[in-house]
Structure formats: C-alpha cells, structure tokens
Amino acid sequence: MKILVVGSIAYDSVETPYGKRENEPGGSALYFSAAASFFNSVNVVGVVGSDFDTSKISFLKKRHVNFDGLYVESGETFRWGGRYHTNMNKRDTLFTYLNVFEDFNPTIPDHYKDSQYVFLANIDPDVQLDVLQQISNPKLTVLDTMNFWINGKKDVLLNVVKKSDILILNDEELQELSGHDNLVNAGREIIQLGPKYVIIKKGEHGAMLYYNDRFFISPAFPLDKVIDPTGAGDTFAGGFLGYLASANEMSDQHLRRSIVYGGVMASFVVQDFSFKQLQNLDKQSINQRYKEFKELTIF
Amino acid sequence: MKILVVGSIAYDSVETPYGKRENEPGGSALYFSAAASFFNSVNVVGVVGSDFDTSKISFLKKRHVNFDGLYVESGETFRWGGRYHTNMNKRDTLFTYLNVFEDFNPTIPDHYKDSQYVFLANIDPDVQLDVLQQISNPKLTVLDTMNFWINGKKDVLLNVVKKSDILILNDEELQELSGHDNLVNAGREIIQLGPKYVIIKKGEHGAMLYYNDRFFISPAFPLDKVIDPTGAGDTFAGGFLGYLASANEMSDQHLRRSIVYGGVMASFVVQDFSFKQLQNLDKQSINQRYKEFKELTIF
C-alpha cells in the first residue's frame, strides 16, 4: 500500500556527549522514510534548497522511496542546530533557519494522490490541512504536531486533528492539547476531538497506544549507548506506519505490532548520528530486535 | 515460605489533589505486609509508640501477618506529613518526626529467624546490617534504600548491598548509587556490587527487572484517578516478594510474574488514601488486574 509523507528535509548540526556532526541530512520526512522503507514504499513530499546534496539520500531511492514530490527551490535548505544534555532527555535548540521551508506549501503530485496511508509530519497545520484537501480518500491519516502549533494555531490544528485517524505526540504535547495531566483522561479527550487512536511517545519510557478506552504499552529498548536521539520520533512513526501499511489491516494484533516496530526502528536510529544506522540496517537485524522486544515484556 | 519484613510503622498525614487525611496508618512495613499477605504469611518487625491504635491493623492479623516482632515503646509513633503536587509525581515533605523510630534497632524474635525471604525496607543501613546478622540463612534478601543513606552512609550501605540478592530502588536512587545515568550501565554496576537482580521502580512509567545482562519491563497500570501515591513502592515490594515467596522458585517466569504482581498491588493502593484499598481487596480482583496487565503489553 502506498504511503505519503509530508514533512521537513533539513541539514542538522548536532552536539551530543558522543560527538558533534555538522550539516548532516535530517528532517521528519527523511527519518520517517528511512524507517518506513524497510516495510513499504514511500512517497515523499518536501522541499530543499539548491545546496542540498541528493547523493546523501540515494540509498533511500534504492529502497523504493519516491522523491517525485521533492521540490528544489533556490535558496538554502532548512537548517537546525541542537545540543543534547548529558542524559539525552533534554536538548537546547541552538538555531533554526527555516530558509526555503518557510514558504513550504506543496502541490501533491497527481500520482501520489491515491496514497492510502498518509503521515502528516510536524509542520504548520495550515499546510497539513491543505495537503489533506489534495488527497482523494486516504485509508488512514496519521498526524504529528508540537507545542508550537498547539499554542499558536490551535483552531486550525483542531480541524486537522478532527480529520485524522491517529494522533501521534509526546506526553507533554498530549497534556497541552488535551488539558489533562492524567493519560487516561487525556486519551479520552483526544478521542472526543476526532481520532480513533492516540499514540503517546514517551522517549526512554517507550510508547503507548490508546484506543477503545484501553492501552497497549511498549517499552523503549534499553541501550547502553544512545549516540544521537535526533529523529527518533519520526523514525518511530516510520516503523509504525511502514509496518501497518504493509499489513494493510487495522486489527488489534497489527496495531500492537506496528507500535513495536516503531520502537524497534527508533532504537536503531539513536545508535548513531543522523540516520547512519538506518542506512546500514537489514531486515534480519530488525526482526531480531523485534524478538528482543518480545522478551522484554513477556511473562 | 516465611517472609520477614523490617521497616517503619507510621502515622501519615497526606494532602493530595483529592483530599487530606491525618494520622492514617502507614510506613514501609505495613504497606509491604498489606500487599504480601495476599500471597504469603508475613512476619513483621517494627516499632510504634504507646499512642498507636492497633485496631487499625487488625485486618492484617486476619491475613496471617504476624506482629510478634512489633515493639511498643513509650513515646509517640513515627509521624510523616507530605503534600503531593497536581501531577502526583512530586511531593513535598511537610514534616518528619522519627519519635520512637529514632532508636529503632530491633531484636529479631527467635521464631522469625528461620524466615526464608527477607525484605529490608528503607531504614538505616546499620540497622539493616544488624538485622541480617541475626537471621540464620535466608534464601533471598531484598534490599530497599534511599538517597539519604546513599549520600550519608554509603560504606555501610554498600556492605548491606553486597549481602543482598535483590536491590530495589527508584531510577534516581539507582543513578546516584551506581554513578551511571544510563540504566544498562547502572544495572551492570550494581551487579558488580553483589546483588544478582536489580529492580528499578519508575513510578508512572512502571518497573524494570535487570538480571543476567537483560531486562524485563512492566508498565504501570494506567488509572484515570490516582488518589494517594503514598506507599506505592513498598506495596510493590510486597506484591513482588509475596508472590515470589509463595512460588518459592527463582525461575525466569516466576520472577517476571512477581514484578507484575508488584505492579498490580501498587496500582490498587494508589486508588485510595493509606492502605484502605488493600484492606477491602480480594484475590479475584487481584487476578483480574493481573490479566489486564497482560493485555497491556501482549502483542
């Protein structure tokens, strides 16, 4: 089944306790695609500047990631710089230059419009809404967002939330959007807003899926070394939707497995800078870690 | 199999967003016993003042909790007062009056000395060491502690840690004792200190068991209302050791189930003030929630 992702493509400069990297490819659309492409083909919509070195993403093309929706504009690619604290749970943003991403309001290529699975990465809700209006009749829409939009464009965001099937956010964002500290009450509140499913990303504490007034909970994989957490959330989303689209069935079992595959992919991406780890990964290692996830919680 | 618990017995005064209670019975030994007694008989060693109303714990006697090791000293019972913040993850201690608990250094009754399972609740490591020296040959010793002792009496504490089979602490305490932020490295470090097993309590994020260089992870049960988190950690320990002692076998399966029963019991105790919820609980509700725990993580 076809997956469409609309999101950012960036050059990231990152400092972690394990080192420093400058102008490495990143952004939600690339992390998502790098993970999802192990399970399913992906149609990317994004924008880069004329400075973007496409050879950096050629490995994705080999994995059936379609870049027909990649717009190259004159100007510079979106740049983000951040520094992680020792325990990796907190980071400071050092700079954000939107550059060509500032006026990103893409036309979805015609041959993308029948994509059944849509991931609206964390971008301006106005753009998310516009994208949704261009898609014929998606089977499943997954929406990501952040505090910046919850505070700044709540009305439009709520409109997009209403049209989405799955809302994916972290615990802080969930509390902010729902107005509830308590996860059960927060989950119930979101369901009232439209989506059937809520995925709560909790970083080192794993992820939760809320639906039908109950939870599925998956831990994060305990790693002795987290090199660079950048992109973990979008990689999670890629593993999740990649597996789900390949299963193409919203059964309880497939949903739960999708969450675990999300965690599996996120556990890999943080083991190196940028998406280097996803670049060198194979399906066998993914399946091996999936089994290790099972061992983590079975009793 | 006999369980021995040595810990505090207190009058707690607690304020949470759901209300205020004054001088309700509490303390590690009582919370532990209230949970463990659903699975196994328990021998309590503790001290109260002449003001302690033993009718408050008569329900425990009916459940085979033995109070022959309860010392009644002239003076007042240990008193603790605390106020929880809105999200229940943080609390302020309003007062701590050790009273008769200050000079607690108990003689273990002779007919307790063959207890096979020992829980050393969070008390002065000197007392913990002295207790261990009075016990003949326990099959399994579980040790709890806190930052106060990690900072103040590290040498003695490390001596007790060395003699213990299972160390149970929260993530902050683990980091402080091990010197590692990372849970995998922290777990490995603790194993070097003596214990075979480390249990990491993570509050709303559940609990982890580390052994043989791997983890078992169990979530906390999502509740829409947490009334009073006081005693959740000791209740967890009671469910854990109560089940494990009744199984009387350190197999992988029993260890994992013990952790889940710990979480089950903790999920009940926080649903009301003091241990009211444990007082009215029955085995059927416990087994029902155990099944619900399974549903939380199975995939």
Structural features, described:
The structure is a homodimer of 299-residue chains. By secondary structure, the first copy, chain A, is α/β, with parallel strands linked by helices. Chain A has a single domain (3-297), classed as UDP-N-acetylmuramoyl-L-alanine:D-glutamate ligase. Chain A has helices spanning 28-36, 58-62, 125-134, 147-152, 154-162, 171-178, 183-193, 232-247, 252-269, 276-279, 283-297, and strands spanning 3-6, 10-16, 19-26, 42-49, 65-73, 78-84, 91-97, 117-120, 140-144, 166-170, 197-201, 207-211, 214-218. The first copy, chain A, has a nine-stranded mixed sheet, with helices on both faces. A four-stranded mixed sheet of chain A has the order 3-2-6-7. In chain A, α3 (125-134) runs parallel beside α5 (154-162). The longest helix of chain A is centred in the C-terminal third of the chain and has 18 residues, at 252-269. The first copy, chain A, is globular, with a radius of gyration of 18 Å. The two termini of chain A are 34 Å apart.
The number of E-state strands of chain A comes to 13
* CATH architecture type of chain A: 3-Layer(aba) Sandwich
- The number of domains of chain A is 1
What proportion of the residues of chain A is helical, as a percent range?
Answer: 25-40%
Spell out the CATH superfamily of chain A.
Ribokinase
Helix/strand/pairing category of chain A: alpha/beta
- The count of helical stretches of chain A stands at 11
Query: What's the oligomerization state?
Result: homodimer
Order of neighbouring strands in the sheet with most strands of chain A: 5-4-1-8-9-10-11-12-13
Broad CATH class of chain A: Alpha Beta
Through-space gap between termini of chain A: 34 Å
